[in-house]
Amino acid sequence: xxxxxxxxxxxxxxxxxxxxxxxxxxxxxxxxxxxxxxxxxxxxxxxxxxxxxxxxxxxxxxxxxxxxxxxxxxxxxxxxxxxxxxxxxxxxxxxxxxxxxxxxxxxxxxxxxxxxxxxxxxxxxxxxxxxxxxxxxxxxxxxxxxxxxxxxxxxxxxxxxxxxxxxxxxxxxxxxxxxxxxxxxxxxxxxxxxxxxxxxxxxxxxxxxxxxxxxxxxxxxxxxxxxxxxxxxxxxxxxxxxxxxxxxxxxxxxxxxxxxxxxxxxxxxxxx
Length: 272
Prior knowledge:
By secondary structure, this protein is of the alpha+beta class. It has seven helices and ten strands.
């Protein structure tokens, strides 16, 4: 049997296999958990923004390009120098946690590309921090309005990232550092203000206590005045007689001289 007639077919099969193996990395792909991808179709309209590829195995034409995005939560840490309202330099340390919007990878890629962290996320964080802190003085940022400053930075960063297809999960200002002389001056001022508040509190407390005592004394004086005005001689005689009668009921014998006491009151001489 002559097998030479099958030789061209074998060659075609072998060449096709080798060609397929060589192009396999351009044809077959796998999207892992926590990833999304989009395809750029060179001959079919360019970037397919509306079809985000989910995790799993897939195939594409070898001339098309696949762009894979990590959509797990990510974080960046930024240290920067910013100016306060009065032009004073402040060193700020910020941490941002975020991830791309899963179904908007195509639009994110079209506007910023796979390097979106450096072209979008970090610049937006820096911009928000600079703009917000430029509205306050160093003293406000360091002490009285730190919470308000953090809230405003979070709000502005979240809004900007959301508009550009990223989701902010958290933003934390880890530290705010001022020049040493400025920091000490602010802390001394705050200490003096606290001492002044404590002193004022003691004064207010003492004033309240004095007022309480005055009111109590006034009330007692009024009560005594009412009692004194009601103690007429006739009332005192009547009360004396009533007390004498109660005393006479006692089992102990007594000598009572009627009308011998002051103002005609009974006089008790003693017990037997």
